[in-house]
Fold each of these.
Amino acid sequence: MLEIRNLRKNFRSKEVLRDLNLTVAEGSVFGLVGINGAGKSTLLRCICGVYQPESGQVIFNDKDTYYDEEIRKDIFFVSDDGYFPHNSTISSIKCFYETFYDLDEDLYRKYLRTFNLSENAQINTFSKGMKRQTSLLFALAIRPRLLLLDECFDGLDPLVRLTFKKALVDLLEDKSITVIISSHNLKELEDICDSFGILDNGQINTYGDLLQSKENITKYQLAFHEDHEKEDFSSFNLMNFKKEGKVYTLVIKGDKEETTRQLEEMKPILLNELPVSFEELFIYEVESRGLLNE
Amino acid sequence: MSKKYFDYLLKSQKHSIIFLTVINAIGLAVSFSAFNGNNRLEAALGCSLIINMLLTFISGPVLFRMVDDRKAVDTYFPVCVKRRDMLNTILLFAIMLAVIPFIADVSITAFMQVCWKHKFAFDYLRFMLPVTLALIGLTVFNSCTFLLANSVFDGIVAMLAYTCMPFIFYAVTGTFFEECIYGYSPDLSIFAYMSLAYNTMSNGFLSIVLLNEGISYLPWIIGAVLYTVIGYYGAYRNFVNRKNERAESISDELLSYPALITIYSACLILTVAFASGLNELSFILYFLIFIAYTVANFVYKRKIRIQLKSVLFFVGMIALATILTHVAYKTNGFGISYTYDHHPSNVSVSYSSEVDRYGEFKDIFDAIKEKEGSSSPYISEIEYGTINFELTIRDTKRDGYDQMMEVINRFRDSSIAQHYEGTLQPKYDYFQTSWMSLTEITATRHSRNSHYSCYQPLSLNDLLVIDRYCPVYIKFYSDMKSFRISDYLPSDINI
């Protein structure tokens, strides 16, 4: 289990993470989302021990990830822009990883074939997507207890994305592996994440089970004979309101059945419940906090 | 120490190790084949010393460069190795890269000595210890200064700036004594000891040539140990306690650009102020230093911005240096210049003067003309020459030396007066032609070195007085023959 307690991280005078608290259960796939510059990469770097927290702790399996170097053997971080020294090849990078991690040679060979990568080709000549595949190859071959992926779908073509998601599912058969994925591609996250957290203003205030959270928000399409204004719906926990002629689109947070019952009492001539995607959930949450520019 | 990390370094640096082995082997092979006799052994050791000293400036930056790369930081710092162990392992590896080839080279050279001369080279092996310590000190210290910065370029700048710092201190201190406390030349060899790189080169080569004879290794070894201790402390602070977010940001650590730019600017301003006071040339030089200061700040902050505090710092330093220089001139070197011992118990004097028959002081040419006759063709041949003498007196208080000391002291007083009472730019008087250096043991048993220069040379009468105690030679450039002045111009000549 990963537990983050009152984590604070500053860059000079800029406070990036402030008293951040988060618990990620063992075996879960956690989607970390947030607007640009929210501090997602900083949080991942704090978790894997690259950045020293100003205060607070990151505890993984009862050990502090910054101060206890032994636990870092179980953590693997794939950054958004991998480091490949000049003239390096996959086999020379392997030399580094097999020194510090328990690299599974069979898995390494398997994913080398799956991603169709040449072991001795110079990485300098690789495309952005191939470099990303190289990083993911080692992540999958090492099978860490905690895998941190920063923008891991960036630059991957749809086929490779699918291959990687399948590989991740295989990896997650081992119930003790926890994955944290930060991405702006929420459609991809929705396919594989079971929990999520929205990072804003240096804290994670919205987090939990993805399905439950999606169920807690309902999008309605309504039409009335008479004219209604936003204020008429003030009794609901309204996250979004749109009016186009006689048709209203409302996003309401709260118990679905109770909300539907209350809306029916307003005698609409049309009432449709629409599913909410993770992307919409994120947008409505962020909009409701006023984090996006009008 | 981390065995894992060491293994990784061995694997990842195998090409560097092979390259270094080849370079050292080529150095030895070329030295052994291109020189003869003992020279080939000396050349081999000299070559090894240069290669491996250069390595102390390369190995640290190469092995520590990952701290200055954001992407590399994400790769290297999540690994399961304590930072302290990582630091110790990298330092050990860097030291081994510089020291092992050197030890191997010296051992091979000693072995060749045995083969060629059937004599075991204890001296070569003895010189291995201080050089090894110096190479360790330089590797650790250079790694430390490299780690002060947040990018590879800034790290190299910091490393070179700290290497050169003793020389800039030497320049400013030397200029201060030369100009502000005129005539007093204290021993500034402390600055040579401060530079381990300079010491290693000079003492290393002296050791190779003289085979340890008369060379004191102690200051060198102490310097090497101090460099190692200070370097390790600095490297520890800047690696183990390093915030990884520093990578690729501006190098604003106190001891990085902020200290370097301030120290170098201050030293240059002081040097210019001491050397030239306030004149047109000094204003040009101050302006050039300000340009250099602005460029240095641009390199530091990656933007050109002249801040009020920079201008105030500059103006303040110039004002301070100028006031100090003026006070020194007004007080005749804070009262030190004229306070020399007029009768030191022991003195060595070295005098040299350029003479010129067209110049203001041509009494020697007049005397020669008197002797040879004005129609002598020799008179038209001699135009320029040089006069010099060197004497050492064990006890100037003995009878007979008073007159000679009076001549010497008169020259000193005249030189000091010319320096302080003239303008503030005596250095730019190109006709200044006489130099006198003195090393004296004062009545209080203190050693004092002094250097004087004077527009007005010693007169012929003065030289004839000196010639009673030691030979004074004159040499004309026309025939390059040297004569003792009293032989050429007998004392009864009418001058």
Amino acid sequence: MSFQSLIADLQNFWAHQGCVILQPYDVEVGAGTFHPATALRALGPDPWRAAYVQPSRRPTDGRYGENPNRLQHYYQLQVILKPAPADSQELYLASLAALGIDARGHDIRFVEDDWESPTLGAWGLGWEVWLDGMEVSQFTYFQQVGGIECDPVSTELTYGLERLAMYVQGVESVFDLDYNGVPGSGQITYGDVFKRGEREFSAFNFELADTALLIRHFADAERECRAVLGRGLALPAYDQCLKASHLFNMLDARGVLSVTERAAYILRVRELAKGCCETWLGDREAGGEPK
Amino acid sequence: MTSDHDPNGAGRGELLLEVLSEEIPARMQRRAIGNLTELLRDKLAAAEIAPAAIHGYVTPRRLVVVAEGIPAAQPDRTEERRGPRVGAPQAAINGFLGSAGVASVEECEIRDTGRGAFYFAIVRRPGRPSAEVLPELVKGTIDELPWPKSMRWPGAAMRWVRPLTSIICLYDGESLPLAIDGIPIGRSSRGHRFLSPGEFCVAGADEYLEKLQHAYVILDPDRRRELIRADLDRRAAELGLRVTPDPGLLDEVTGLAEFPVVLAGAIDPDFMTLPPEVLQTAMRTHQKYFSCVDHDGRAAPHFLFVANNLAEDGGKAIAAGNERVLRARLADARFFWDQDRKVPLARRVTALKQRVYHDKLGSVYDKVCRMEALAAFLVEDIRFPYHSLVTSAEAGVQGNRSDPAAFRGNDEHEDKGELGKLADRAAHLAKADLSTGMVGEFPELQGVIGRYYALADGEDPRVAEAIAEHYKPVGPKDICPSAPASVIVALTDKIDTLTTFFAIGEKPTGSRDPYALRRAALGIIRVILEDGLRISLKSAFTKAAEVFYLQQGVSHWQERVPPLYAELMSFVIERLKVHLREEGVRHDLIAAGFAQAGTAESDIVHLLSRVAALQTFLDTGDGASLLIAYRRASNIVAIEDRKEGFARSSDVDPSQLREAGEQALAIRLDHVGSLAGVLIANERFEEAMAELARLRPSVDEFFDKVTVNTDDANLRENRLRLLARIRDTMNRIADFSQIEG
């Protein structure tokens, strides 16, 4: 099963569960959770089901394309089910079965993992899902986002697509993944698509990115976010919050933040996220459409 | 459980409670079932329907309690209530009858209480049937069960550790109506998630236990644990190996499977050149695998793990998957192993400037600089037991609290010079491995990795060992370093940590101890005691403070040292008391032995020899009898002092000593007092105690022959002072007033 058909199968599975299939959000984020379709939609009473692939940027995880398991840019497939269905675990297992992973022939385990995102002011309880000893997904019941209680609680599923595909294809290096499933000379591997990016972005993230510029851009994004929040526009403000969050991740990768500075930056992003979440809900309470 | 009863359990007072949920974290399971069982037992007892037996079981998905012999109903209760006086106004009588639920005054008894005749109503309250009491009681138990972290989920009003799936609550086969919002309650359950999909119904506990077994669930955690243990041994034996025992991991994996199946996987031989600690950490912490050794105790290229499934292929696919995961982890580790060794540790030290230790304490590099300065000081200041300094290895681990005569003084310049070089180098390199990729990946291997890299760099093996051991002891079961260079760096690290965090006001409060300062203090205590080190903590803490204040450029730092030292020493003494109590030393002896010292005494070995000598002394007949005499003397003095409103002195006027008994005692007290002072100053506690013991005949004679309460006021006062002198002389050695029993 090629990387792209694995994605297609999962999207099909969740489409049949009534999810809207969205496209990736077009701002750099560290995880699929940050997509407004999860972070904001997890709040408020309206039912919501969505699934989408989200490129995730983790500047500190870059290894110049030299580590077979570590990437600064990788894909998550994110599913949000609101309210959390009573058979969430069964649905998840059925999605694995749809990829041809039969639970009876493998060892699938739900291992404690309490999820927390300090920058989003969010937390939930759930598990890492282990497939024959490999963590392939995160499973979370959202309790809070932006410091606000989630009511109803949602189920959030995050598939680590590269890991899952490596397992299914039985390859040892992410760069050897068969991306398009074309045999012979037409085959494109994950390395063909992304290896150069890993090398270049690792160098940029760790060595080049202008820290003074990053610090300035962070302050700009923060100011813009607050200004837009002042006009009651949740979504554009949230974009600025995401930008600030990514700039913070870049600063972190450049290793220029002391422990207190780091904590202070996290707090600043959390304040923005909180404001965006409140504004998002405020629109709703004022009688507007859920945006 | 026997089966000659009604299969439904009817009539034997049986309660079956199963709370089925999504996967409960392994680390919480044991405590949860313990709490649930205890809560239920307490509530049943409080409702006067205590069961004859009650058992709790836990798996990753269920908490189960089976109780037997619950009485069918609460006992009837008879209450007696006193009403108004006979002849009271009718309204008062009617009010009483109404509140007691009695129809007429004829049903009341009239009794004379001695203060007049009163109406008494005897109210009989029949016990409620257990079936009626239980639902609320069980619900209360479920509601009150505490979890370290709990969550909400849609449709349920309650919180639990993870969403609840269903509840079975049967009393004598009847399903009890629990009012738990949104959770299906009945008599059906589910077995193993994959091996036995589908639901089953039960009529009682016997059937439940039997069906569960058929549904691939081993309910009893002790049995699961034992099965896993036996299978691990068997699998290892099949491979010609032994499994490395790991009780903590065994407990954890017991909580991760309802139907445990032990499988084996192979490790690529290429990885076996990695340090065994790296292999073990990658396997244990990250993957929950057990490691194996061959018959020579060498790490074997196999691992064992516990799956929660019985696969048709005998687990081949599962093992292959796990092997692949481990391969990826070890490939990472080998990458770091190869990369890291390209840069020697010595060249990594300056990189520690980039690493913040604490905002107010500077970088890790700053800490290393302080450690170097303090290490040089300690090398000169510590006295090691003789054998330890010479042989360097293995000595002192057994907790030797040996005779001070076995110590050499500071005259072994040659040894100290060598030790100084080793300790300086080790302190310099101690933290360098923090900047390696390997420690980034496996933080728990800090120090250990430093040793490997130091050896690879050609450092002295004693330096490498000191780098590895300087974090020790990590936990209460961890051993203390004993090689001199290791001891110096281990103490240096901990003394610097304690001193600097106290200096910036970061002291532990209550349960909050984010910088593990209690552990650092205990580490200092254990290293000193187990290695029998003679060290003045006063000079060590003072030096550490000086180094820190100078590094920070603090002005007038000298003024800050004495209060800082007092805080540090009383903190260490507190930890020492806790440590000794845990070791089984009597707390009153600790108090008595420490009382005279205060924070002035900062040599822990010295302090402890007081306590030990005191213990020995009190175990003798002389000791026991002197303790009685001490109490008698100090009680009399205390009473008289109180009467007169002042504390009398113990200055005895020799001219007022009339009788032979008092003269002899006064001479003896003078002698013992001066001698004991000298002996204590020279740490000869046992001899000081022996001197004390010689007081006994004179004290006994004094109490036998001399009357304190004479009519002559001057004589009486002098004799009271003599008693006070007994007290004070003995208190010079230990505070005998603290001793109990």
